[in-house]
Structure formats: structure tokens, C-alpha cells
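Let us walk through a complete example step by step. Step one is to write down the protein sequence. Step two is to encode the small molecule, fe (ii) ion, as a SMILES string so that its atoms and bonds are unambiguous. Step three, shown after the inputs, is the structure prediction itself.
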Amino acid sequence: MSNVVSDEKIPNNVDLSSDRRLQRALEAWQPKFIDWWKEMGPEGWQAKDIYLRTAVSVEASGWAHFDFVRMPEYRWGIFLEPKDPNRTIGFGDMMGQPVWDEVPGEHRTMLRRLIVTPGDTEPASVEQQRHLGATAPSLYDLRNLFQVNVEEGRHLWAMVYLLHTYFGRDGREEAEELLSRRSGDRDRPRILGAFNEPTSHWLSFFMFTMFTDRDGKYQLSALSESGFDPLARTCRFMLTEEAHHMFVGETGVQRIVKRACELMKQDPSGDVRARGGIDLPTLQKYLNLWYTLSLDLFGGEISSNAADAFASGLKGRHKEDRYQDHKVLEGTYGIDVMEDGKLTRRDVAMRTALNEVLRAEYIKDCQRGVDRWNKTIADEGQAFELKLPSNRFHRQIGIYSDFCFTPDGTPIARAEWEARRGEWLPSDADEAYVKSLMKPVYERGKIASWIAPPAKGINGLPEDFEYVRVE
Ligand SMILES: [Fe+2]
Ligand SMILES: [Fe+2]
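Step three: the predicted structure of the complex.
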């Protein structure tokens, strides 16, 4: 038995100790992963003890084991939801047939793309967030950052497991590529746009985990319906971890909102910036930015790729079992398209609109979070409402990307859009201001001026617990 790969070092439920081929593949890949983690993972914190959650088994008692650990020694495991031997394909042309335990030859290329594209976002986000440990607003937040980072690392493992086990040589090559692309790099960027954007401060981090991780939730949910059973089972387990990332984002923004409202009351002229906070109009701009970058991740509104992935039984809809019709051979979806400078509603075949169907579910979910932020503002006695902009605003992918729209979705000329951009999206001055607030607060129980303390601590521990041993 090798000293690199063992059930002890790599907790798993895929029978790793008796799978020689997988062991050999991981023995080659795992040291490269650790090198990547040390080079591109959280900067400056690799030798510190962090209070982290580790999944050590899929049972309710095992998937959230808490202890102090140094990040390079984190036990990145490989977990799939237990197999249901009677599971059948739940949608598309192959509906009702047994699910696949091996990759069907005719779908190999599409399936590989469906695994590599989300797989690439996992290391990308770790790279985007690697400097944030220098400026965390509290030990609680610092620990949450690292928790998100190590779990994105585990999600990379989950996808690499699929590539190594089911895709032979091209799978191994793809697994190497996942470690060689770099977020924001001009020559070898990450695959998707939002994952090349800088996440240079904590406001962007919270917006990212609120909106961009939530895209991940919906993509994983659609893939968890897949007729390729190992992919479905992998994604189901990842979703349990993803929930925490969105919690970090939603509550992070909510705490900034709360603090802004408190400072509005403290300052005689309601000037939040004068008191060292992040004002609500600035929050709205970052919301506009990260929400629209995340909308792009769902792909084009009208997409033959989406139709093919559904027809082939590879990617379903969010909660497919809630639908009546799982073949979707009939039916249309209304989409507003630009024609002669005006918006016109067009009905397109439902199968080609499945990206839009998934995006619509995502939008509803985002709205629920924004409603909770607005409730905080109302509870604090302030008259201000945060809003999700129109799905046409600031798009770089899809049918709206060649046109300009205001945040409420009205078409406008490009010159006007450019002139007003700074009203709607963070300006250089906003970015400089937010960055100026980012000073680390690493004393137990202390918190930065621009954010309210969390409502409670982690795993039943007090909020002022020493979640990261700084010394
Ligand atoms: Fe993830
Ligand atoms: Fe995530």
C-alpha cells in the first residue's frame, strides 16, 4: 500500500483501498494538488490551526466532523451518495431506462464537458480568494473563508475522481489541466467569466458566495438528476456542503446591511461612510455586479447544447421530479428578444430554453435572500430597498449581451449606458473606498467597523471562540 493514498488519508466511500487503478491515478495527481494548494491556496495561513469541518463519511454523523487542522493536512475525501440500485433515468429521450454506471460512448464528449466546466470553478474560486486572509473582519469570518476554500478543494477532488475513474487517459489529462489553469491569467484563464474576476475584498467575497456559489447549487442540482449515476451521486453530496457557502454569503451581506443601518442612525446626516461603514447604495452596486456575472454562468437563453444535454439524459432540471412532463417534446417558453431596437416576446421550444428555466429558478432563490436583507433594513427602521436588477442588465453572455439596458431592463443607447455605468456598478472610487476599510481584525471577539457580529458561532461554540489560532 502506498504511503500517499490510503483510506485514512483520503476518507472515501468508493472502495479506494481495493481499486488499484484509482490509487495509481491519485498517487500521481495528489502531490500536484498539494503543490497547487500551497502555491494558489490561502496565502499566509497554511501553517496555522483552523477550526474546520471535515466530511469523514456520508452518514449524518460523519459528514460534518469539526476539529483544528492545518489546511495542507486537511483530509480531502471522495464521497458519493449511496447508490440506489433501482434508479432509472428521470427525463429526456431515455426516460425510464436504467441509469448508467459507465460513460455511454456516444455521450462521452458532452459528459466530460459537463464535468470539467463546473470542476474548473472549484479551484478557480480558491485562487480568487487567496489574499482575503490578510484582511478578514474577524476570526469567525476568517475561519469561514478557509472552510469554503477547503470544501471547494474537496469538490475539485470529487470531479477529479470522476475523470480518473471513468474517462481514462483524457480524464487524467483534464485533471491535470484543472490544476494548470489560473484565475484571471491572460494565457491560461479559468473556463468561465465570473471565475476570472478579482475577488479583492470581503464585500465581493460575500456577494460571490451569495450569488456565484448559488449558481453552483443550481448547476449541481441539475447534474444531480443525471442518468450518469456516479455524477448524480457526487453532486448530491456536494450540495450538502454548498449550502454552507451560501449561508456565509447571505449572512455576510446581511451583517453589512445591518451595520450600515446602525451607522445611518448614529451619524447626524446619515452618512455611513463618514462612520467607516459600507452604505446601502454601494452594496446595491456590488449586488448588481455579482448577480449579473452569475446570471451569465447559466449560458445562453436559447441553447441547443442545453437541449442536447437534456435529451441525452445527462443534465436535468432543478428538482426534476416536481415536473409532470419529463420528455419536454412539446411546449414553449416565452423569452423577450430584441428586434428592431425593441423588446418582443417570442415563444421558443421548451427544450432549447432549459438554461433559462434553470436561471428562472435561481432568480427566485436570489430574490428570497434579497427579501431577507430588506427585512433587516425595515427592522432597523430605514427606508431603502435592495433590488435584483433585470436579467437583461449588464449581460456578457446570451441574447442581451449585444445591447444595453438599465437595471430595470429598459433598452438604452450604449453611450448613455457608458455615461451612467458608475451609478449602477462599482466605480474605481467605490472599489478604493471598500478596499480602504479592509483591515484585519484578529483579536478574539472583536469585529471590523463595517460589519455587524454574527448572530451565533460555529457548531454551537460562542461567537468569540478562537476559530483560528493566529499565533
Ligand atoms: Fe463547490
Ligand atoms: Fe461553493
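Step four is interpretation. The beta strands are 49-54, 65-69, 332-339, 342-349, 404-405, 411-412, 468-469.
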